[in-house]
Amino acid sequence: MKSVRIAAVLAGAVALVVLAWLALQPAQRPLASARIDSAPIATDIGNFARAFEPRPFVFPADHGPHPEFQTEWWYYTGNLQDAAGRQFGYQFTIFRRALTAETMSRASSLASNQLYFAHFALTDISARQHVAAEKFSRGAGGLAGACARGAAIPCNDDASFHAFIEDWSVTALDDKGDAVRIIARHKNHHLDLTLRAVKPVVLHGDRGHSPKGAEPGNASFYYSFTRMQTEGDVVFDGTRFAVAGSSWMDHEWSTSALGANALGWDWFSIQLDDQRELMLFQIRNSDGSLEPASSGTLIDAAGQTTRLTLADFTLEAQDRWRSPVTGGEYPVRWIIRIPEQDIELTIEARLPEQEMNVSIVYWEGAIRVTGTSGGRAVTGQGYLEMTGYAQSINGKF
User: Fold this and answer.
1) pTM of the model
2) Looking at residue 110, what is its pLDDT?
């Protein structure tokens, strides 16, 4: 959800010990190409800050990192096309995970208690191909990090916002952080995009405080730019395409956001052709129930928001696709109903094969939207994220 976006899931007890030791020691090389499979990082949250209640948001400072919290991510997705109509989807996300709540004093410039990793995916919808990659590194020595003007970690060059992991980066292009440049490269696949917000920041939940469970503190601070004009270049399998389209940005930070019964989630970001946007997520519990804190936000054309609770909407999963790699079975067609708003939408994956088979297996991909609102036909596009279908995320957030 990218209201509970994929936080750091790093690997079994042995792998965790090795990673923590490496991150806190003077290293011989960056953690750039590690792949670690399937277990939680630190479970002790006693000294980390938690999201107990709403707090003011201040920009550009809040575009930057919040190291007092355990987990944080900066997430961008979009639907793009070139002048000939060739269509692409992309995801670019940088994650921060704190290994300890306290900053440890070390002589080495490479010592850090902050682990960064990132996911980059491109979908060539027209060619029906999807590629995904990830990177890991420590938050020191110029290998990875995040900063913002006025944040706990300011940028050395007074930039309003910057986050990076090696040669993957997102950098603000203006004083407010409303416009950014994204750069990512993996083999013969590249992304170089400029994004500019055309609507104001959206604060989800209660003024940006987004509960994920009943226990106090099981929540995140969560805001979005729900419509960003996008243009630049996509290189897919060595061929360059000049593209334009629309993107969505999420920034979220938390400590232990999910409850003990959580199995996975379904999260939707939707841009309608009438200039409204919709964010919805539901958390699925291991007993088959839905987490009551599941929620959403409807944004009108002027940027005004309506908060949606679980009682306000239904998500009906329909057609499924089975991954031949992981065996995960993902719903790739959904019906969204919001009766009080007279909205009914059909969501279809633009390509079923958009599974992210990285350190945590999940599905993240471009979607098409059709339906009705107030008795009138609407269309749209967006992104869908689904976790817990190939492996449980229980205990990992």
Assistant:
1) 0.89
2) 82
